[in-house]
């Protein structure tokens, strides 16, 4: 075969050929990969038929190759058997594979050798491009309308797993939520819709418009209650229909018993943590859709539900973002010093404060109907209904609320803060407003009520921990080391014990109560435990009485609630000790059975505590007479 040497210019710029030359020491027995593909005409190529030939296909794929005219192929044609023993190189040139023209009329063997593998590679590449990896229409994501891998779900797809069959999903009908969930369990103990309702404390559900029952809000036929956890169904005796009724109070209404309904056959809509299958299908009709559904664990559900409280539009993919799943430093049993103690508990208190603020701010209620009144102190009082089942937080006298009106074409926006002074048995709240000017008393509907969050208690906790960390003398050494979990030798306080451990004005103590009083008087720190009705309040009052009689100064008594403080103050006062009940300024106008012991009352009527100590509660109503004349205190009934 004749060869033509390349020109000087070509040799000067042929970097590909230069790079393929072997190193000098190994030129006789080693070749690089590039050199293997660019040898001359006389090189004997090894033959690897099992690697160089494509596998046979029953149905060949077609792919057009540029420059090949009308011929098409997805794989290069198999080479013919070698015709010359001295040149076993397979001839890859065929009518189906286009070979680029040479630069001269007599192409060099080196150029042809480089062109043949290049053409084969082009043929392989074009065949791979022709492969279709997409699902056929009607069996995959194209028909579904969204891509599971990217989380692009249709609007009514389950926010947990992505199932979107209209017969299997239901919508949470709370205005601030409006998310869709399916009735399948997946990897959880209950269905996804029930899991969401329980964790989010939502109760209203709406079916899909394309479901067998259509777009239907589940509610009681008689009273309109939409709490699905109270709803059930009964069948009519004669007609082939079912009626939704709530368990309380409609199921026990006598008027409904006279109708053509069999109330004894009432069944709840939720059974075994799933909606009934005739209402919302619990199984996925398509096996392929079930396989495509996202597998979610109960732990992921908890995390995404917590994330939705701050970001309603968040998705499961947001859980993987840095910082979302950061856990606070765990609590330990022993701490090295007060700084470590503060570093552990300060973030926990911050999380508790943020959660408490979020919960209170989320309990707002709109479209409230208000009726107006004037209190004895000439302040405006707004009465409205705040149902208990609509809010997670429990209202108590003294709580601060904000009443506001959004405004309309004839009335400006208005808002005022007040505190709860009374809760009626009809779930009616009496809110005394601070400002009486500009109150829209001519309006009764369209108001909104918001909780007012105060950080006072959390700020005090943070301040106390800071003081505990920087000032070792803020508490005694015994308490300091006990709080840090250190081993401390038990101490005994040596003082004169009374011969009688009871206290005047209190019931006689039994043996266990006497032992508790004796133990507390001799130890720096004590814990008294017992079920309700065992006399813990009486025992505590007796302990305070004996501590005060030891003459070591004033005794500070604290309790976790205002009710507990009032009970302790009343019991301690009955022993004859002088008691001053401290309370928040917002609770000064709230009636209390120990109001005569409060600081604000004793400063206003300094002579009243002495009379009360002599004559007890008999003078309580008479003592309020001057206050009633001034219009500053509500009358009390005894």
Automatic annotation (TrEMBL):
Biased composition (Low complexity): 62-75, 100-119
Principal location: cytoplasm
Record keywords: ATP-binding, Cytoplasm, Helicase, Hydrolase, Metal-binding, Nucleotide-binding, Zinc, Zinc-finger
InterPro entries: DNA2/NAM7-like, DNA2/NAM7_AAA_11, P-loop_NTPase, UPF1_1B_dom, UPF1_CH/ZBD
PROSITE patterns according to UniProt: UPF1_CH_RICH
One Gene Ontology molecular-function label: RNA helicase activity
Keyword field contains Zinc-finger: yes
Region (C4): 220-250
Domain of life, source organism: Eukaryota
Chain spans, region Disordered: 20-119
Cellular component terms (Gene Ontology): cytoplasm
Pfam family, one: AAA_11
Residue ranges occupied by any Upf1 domain in the UniProt entry: 150-311
A Gene Ontology BP annotation from the UniProt entry: nuclear-transcribed mRNA catabolic process, nonsense-mediated decay
Localization, UniProt: Cytoplasm
Membership in a protein family: Belongs to the DNA2/NAM7 helicase family.
PANTHER family hit by this protein: DNA2/NAM7 HELICASE FAMILY, REGULATOR OF NONSENSE TRANSCRIPTS 1
Protein name: Regulator of nonsense transcripts 1
Originating organism: Zea mays (Maize)
Organism phylogeny: Eukaryota, Viridiplantae, Streptophyta, Embryophyta, Tracheophyta
